[in-house]
Amino acid sequence: MKTILHTSESRGFANHGWLQANHSFSFANWHNKDRMNFGALRVLNDDIIAPKMGFGTHPHKNMEIITIPLSGELKHRDSLENEWKSVLPDEVQVMSAGRGVEHSEINGSQETHLNLFQIWIIPNKDNVEPRYDQDTFNTAARKNQLQYLVSSIDYEKEGTLKIHQDALISRLDLDENNTFQYYLKSKNHGVYIMVINGELKLEAYTLQTRDAIGISETSVVNMLALAKTSLLFIEVPMKI
């Protein structure tokens, strides 16, 4: 088993006033040559956006972009439909940028901050037709069991959003003292596990809120919740 530990405080941080951004991997003005990616996972940003603020219209190309709001209301608009869509906690959005798309993302609230994860995954196909999708995921369905959110467009996995990569994104809410085994889909995959909140014993590590670990070269990962714990799993091919 190969492991890469990324503690919460080791992430890159940028304070833009209206935006408080934590970067698990090199992004914008924060560069760490040892943290460029984890296999096909290129970006995991943990953003807090002030009321009424956000990202103006900007382009993307050949990237699979997944956004998971944790609190607040995200509003999204893109060049595919050019109308604002709300994305709420327990919803997930995916956008395949493909040959090129423009979008805007703003905090839809006038009063409360927006907290979200934004994930970029390197696609296995370039210059595809751009596409957008979103869906709601019942929180009860991830209580002490894995809830799949995103999977490959090339394989049928019912109830998931689709991207152009052989990847799996899932969530799990563990009660205190519960154990769980995560099984990787192949020896060519690794899984990046983020503790959204709580405390987790994972192999030889104890992880706290917003700590993360990348694991590869194994078929199964064993874990124990030391407190009520919410987890994000991003499983990706390690060779791209």
From TrEMBL:
Residues 150-236 form the Quercetin 2,3-dioxygenase C-terminal cupin domain. Residues 10-121 form the Pirin N-terminal domain. This is Pirin family protein. It comes from Formosa sediminum. Belongs to the pirin family. CDD domains: cupin_Yhhw_N (cd02910). GO terms for molecular function: metal ion binding. Fe cation binds at H58, H60, H103, E105. Gene3D superfamilies: Jelly Rolls (2.60.120.10).
